[in-house]
Amino acid sequence: EGEAGMSGEARLWQRMRAGVVDQCWVQRVENMVGAGCPDVILHQKADGRCAFVELKCRLLAPVRGSTPVFNGSYGLRPAQVAWIYSRASAGAAIFVLGQCGDVLWLAHGRCARELASWTTADLNIQCHWHGSARRTDWEGMLRGIFR
User: Fold this and answer.
1) Are 58 and 69 in contact (CB under 8 A)?
2) Under DSSP, is residue 126 helix (H, G, I), strand (E, B) or coil?
């Protein structure tokens, strides 16, 4: 399947992998057994620290600024919220990397329960990092994860 036929999330995964491969070992998780497990595992090459990242993509921004960005079919499923929130609350490095249009946001997993209610303004305030999807500062995103 060519890039034109790929989902937004698949394209985000390809860009992320290419952008972080020099700094991290990166693995896509295709796990049908562990419901809720995030899409990507990152291991920093410098020190071996590990993080999990769930990818979400919404190609077009909501028309109204008051509309949550990553809710409904664009958001986390209940099993994902449970997996991400419980482990992040216990201290694990778990994040949601969401793209909407040309903007990426990195939210800590402790925010998994609230993410579905956040508007663009909320995301800009609450997230660890945000930046351009077209000219992504992947090193900046990794600093947001491994700070």
Assistant:
1) yes
2) helix
- Looking at per-residue pLDDT, the higher value among 5 and 39 belongs to 39
Q: Which two tokens stand for residue 90?
A: 């216990």
Return the closest-CA partner of residue 95 out of 39, 34, 27, 139: 39
Task: Kindly report, residue by residue over 90-143, the tens digit of the pLDDT.
Answer: 999 999 999 999 999 999 999 999 999 999 999 999 999 999 999 999 999 999
pTM above 0.90, yes or no: yes
CA of 32: how far to CAs of 13, 29, 112, 123, in Å?
18, 9, 21, 29
Tell me the C-alpha distance between 103 and 64, whole Å: 16
**Residue 4 CA from chain centroid, whole number:** 22
CA distance 77 to 67: 18
